[in-house]
Amino acid sequence: MKQQPPTTSTTTRGFTLLEVLMAMGVFAIGFVFIAAIFPVAALLQKEAVDEVNAQQAARNTEAVITSVQASYSSHLAGKLKTLIAGNGGFAQDQRVWALDDVAYNNSNTKWSASIRSFPTSVPSDTDRKFYWVPLVRDSNPDSGVTANDIYTYVFILQKRNGAIYPASPTIFSSFSYLCASPSTESDLIPKVYAVKVTSISNNTIKFRDTDFNGSTISYDTPQQLDVGDQFLDNNGTIYTVSDYDMDANTITVDGILLPTPNAIDTIWFASPGEDADTPGYPSGKSSPTMDILILTEVIK
Q: Among residues 250, 155, 276, 243, which one has the least CA distance to residue 198?
């Protein structure tokens, strides 16, 4: 009887449960890292878009101010005195001044909210994203008010969702301030304010009102000026906040404070505003200030 040759088994060994679990673990870790990239990329893209839009808004601002100039001609000094807010009107004291309500709607200046907002493709100015607020300063008090002497300081502002910006904010009720924007302007449009300073020391500013930045109120972060925020002093110098102390009611700036040509007694800043759902409470949003421009010879 002829015998069959023995057969050789060709079965293939499979993966063990441990190997499968290890592979799934490696895949899960890789998936988590990849998934984490997407929100970061989305945030960076949003920041890049906002930066580009802010630059466009700045260019738009400069173009508008230059093309729609406040044409005061030979009566520049007299007209400025009627168009600048403050006790006694505009002063040739090298200080920064705000325009009053008349100036924003004056036929010469035409700096209404519809002009001071971007993008203009959005029909309603309250629905736009970027705004600008002008301030002025006579840099040479000895020569009279001339076009060459007038500096225009422009806050480029970005509206934050969930915040409102009243011209007479409830959150400011306990301290004095001056709003640089028209008193009738919508609460949906960011505003620039001036507040008083008690003292300065090298690179530190102490505020006159103790609750300005939240020192007497239980908040974890400052209400008005935080690290990285820009502001303008009464001499027209731009500073950036590098630190704050809510208990001491102070902020620290990058560099050294320059009390010239006048003592620093006032700062101009854009408030983060109030909570839209709970007016009277801080919005908790970041500062609307994107940039502060210094323009010369735009008021002629």
A: 250
